[in-house]
Amino acid sequence: MRNRLKNAVTIASIGLGMIAGTGLTASAATVNPHIISQGKVTKFGKVTGDVKGSLYNLPTDNTGKLRFIQTHKLKNFPHTAWIISKSALVKKNNGKDYRYYYVTSTSAKSKKNYSGWVWHKYLKTPSKVNLNAPYISQQAVKAWMGCESASLLEGLHYKGVMKSTGLVKFMKKLPRSKNNNPNNGFAGSPYRVTPGVFQSIFPKPLAKWGNKYTTVKNISGSKLSTLRSQLRMHNPVVVYVTLHFAKAQYGHYFWGRGINNSHVMLLDGYKKNAYHVADPNHGKYWVGAKKFSRSYNYKHYAVAVQ
Known about the structure:
306 residues; 5-stranded antiparallel beta sheet; 17 strands
């Protein structure tokens, strides 16, 4: 029999200062640098660091010389989160090389984005993120085994999706596994304990379900650094851990080995030596990094609500 209680995770958001009425102000640079190398990078998030900097377009003129065209000033984005997608090494006329990132702003509250090239030292990795995702109690509706559904719905509500839909209504659409294999859908019932059944829905079918409402991605196998990067990009993450972050208790099933004391919650923040969660069974709280990482690292199961 699977021992399943629920713990909740919440994360406070990086505030995004959006600019009002900013137009594109073109200003040609006084130097004529050239790009040494350029390429795509694995997307990751940072926030505005030095607000004295600017965003630029980097076109070349008809002679092939690179120009810097200022588009926005970073002072208008004091706490903005940026998604970095490309990197370029630029050699300027002083003979020195400078690393630039192509960035796009991201916000949980606005669909309007701003993009451009920025010197990498004008950005920084935040030491603390708290998205402050909403809390949904599985106990309130007696969904004792419904932590996956509640955690996903918390993430959807944070993204402004399905906000008028409660947990009971949401779980009516919960994909079920016909053979009680959680790799195919939810096994058993979210409202009662089913002896001999591992009552859960694993990341792949959970992400497929979530994708019906917004972009939800199965990022299982990710390191904690990747989860933190998702949070910096305002993407809360449904994580599979253990009840009370205790040592895993394994059981064997026809489909494979499962953690009998597993639990699922929403990761929505981090700071030095701690992570913040919205736990459907226990509320919103900070948990020590060592305790959280041990529990998460058993399976590395994670689903990002993007």
